[in-house]
């Protein structure tokens, strides 16, 4: 997986890039499904966050679409 993020107008935008399916049994296979539950944890190193000091999101539904710009 590769990714990048940028801060603009008070918001972060993150882009993650990964193959839809991988040989690893530990990876989610995105090729056969289109809806997934996901959550995020964010550490702020500039704020000296570490270990359990982080912000955690609620569960969100991730929907994959074929019409990527």
Structure described in brief:
The protein is mainly beta and 69 residues long. It has strands at 2-8, 11-17, 35-38, 41-42, 55-56, 60-63.
Descriptive overview:
The chain has 69 residues and is mainly beta. The chain has one domain (2-63). Helix content is 0%, strand content 38%. It contains no helices and six strands. The strands form three sheets. It has a two-stranded antiparallel ribbon. The chain has a two-stranded antiparallel ribbon with strand order 3-6. Strand 1 (2-8) and strand 2 (11-17) form a beta hairpin. The radius of gyration is 15 Å and the shape is globular. It starts with a strand and ends in a 6-residue tail after the last strand.
């Amino acid at each position: 997986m590769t990714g990048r993020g940028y801060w603009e107008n008070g918001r972060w935008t993150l882009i993650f890039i990964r193959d839809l399916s991988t040989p690893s049994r530990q990876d989610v296979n995105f090729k056969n499904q289109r809806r997934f539950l996901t959550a995020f944890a964010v550490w702020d190193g500039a704020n000296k966050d570490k270990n359990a000091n982080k912000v955690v999101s609620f569960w969100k539904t991730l929907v994959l679409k074929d019409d990527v710009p």
